[in-house]
Specification:
The complex is a heterodimer of chains A (111) and B (112). With 111 residues, chain A is mainly beta. Chain A is 0% helix and 53% strand. Chain A has no helices and 11 strands. In chain A, strands 2, 4, 5, 9, 10 and 11 form a 6-stranded mixed sheet that branches. In chain A, strands 1-3-8-7-6 form a 5-stranded antiparallel sheet, with no helix packed on it. Chain B is mainly beta. Chain B is built from no helices and 11 strands. In chain B, the strands form 2 sheets. In chain B, strands 2, 4, 5, 6, 9, 10 and 11 form a 7-stranded mixed sheet that branches. A 4-stranded antiparallel sheet of chain B has the order 1-3-8-7, with no helix packed on it. Chain B is globular and about 35 Å long. The termini of chain B are far apart. Classes of the chains: A mainly beta (111), B mainly beta (112). Chain A binds chain B through residues 1-2, 30-31, 33, 35, 40-45, 48, 88, 92, 95-104, and chain B through 4, 31, 33, 35, 41-45, 48, 50, 55-56, 58-59, 88, 90, 92, 97-106, 108.
Chain lengths: 111, 112
């Protein structure tokens, strides 16, 4: 990946459990975004966190950002089968009009 | 609400042929991005345009070129196609720098 790694690469949990995905990046950023992708479809924006923010919530999503460690985490609470998808973090690579994606975590929610 | 429209959805070409992919961004979005995504891979940034001018370039082969027209639609032109060019190609647009990207459903290019 141009910007960093996501951890884990694949995650399989039972419906109702929480899912946590981590992302690391290499360069300084203005913001970090999380996207979701269903197989073969376009990416859908989930949440954006700015470099001066440490935590952000949106519905069942919680994102944290640690700029000192250059890492972020996405927590999905009370997972549903419909949450099955790949999740990518992306950074603005220091302000350019160029969003750089990590390798993604493939999340499977088992009913 | 209007979304990013890409055409065609599927394209099959032979080696050494050319291909043109089209993208119609969301109205009033000032930035257009192109990404390439191989099977099981993350989207790789190719190129972006801000107000019809090329603004940033990524890992785009010299065989590829892109432009944005006066009506804001964009085209990705790919020549001398290789088997390795088979991938999903996404276009995205954003309202402004630093704002979320809105992706189209992609063009699946298969080179045989």
């Amino acid at each position: 990946s141009q910007q960093g790694e996501e951890d884990p690469q694949a995650l399989s949990i039972q419906e109702g459990e929480n899912a946590t995905m981590n992302c690391s990046y290499k360069t300084s950023i203005n913001n970090l975004q999380w996207y979701r992708q269903n197989s073969g479809r376009g990416l859908v924006h989930l949440i954006l966190i700015r470099s001066n923010e440490r935590e952000k919530h949106s519905g069942r999503l919680r994102v944290t950002l640690d700029t000192s460690k250059k890492s972020s985490s996405l927590l999905i609470t009370a997972s549903r089968a419909a949450d099955t998808a790949s999740y990518f973090c992306a950074t603005d690579a220091g302000g350019a009009q160029k969003l750089v994606f990590g390798q993604g975590t493939r999340l499977t929610i088992n009913p | 609400a209007a979304g990013v429209i890409q055409s065609p959805r599927h394209l099959i070409k032979e080696k050494r042929e050319t291909a043109t992919l089209k993208c119609y961004p969301i109205p009033r979005h000032d930035t257009v991005y192109w990404y390439q995504q191989g099977p099981g891979q993350d989207p790789q940034f190719l190129i972006s345009f801000y107000e019809k001018m090329q603004s940033d370039k990524g890992s785009i082969p010299d065989r590829f070129s892109a432009q944005q027209f006066s009506d804001y639609h964009s085209e990705l032109n790919m020549s001398s196609l290789e088997l390795g060019d088979s991938a999903l190609y996404f276009c995205a647009s954003s309202l402004a720098t630093g704002r979320p990207l809105h992706f189209g459903n992609g063009t699946r290019l298969t080179v045989t």
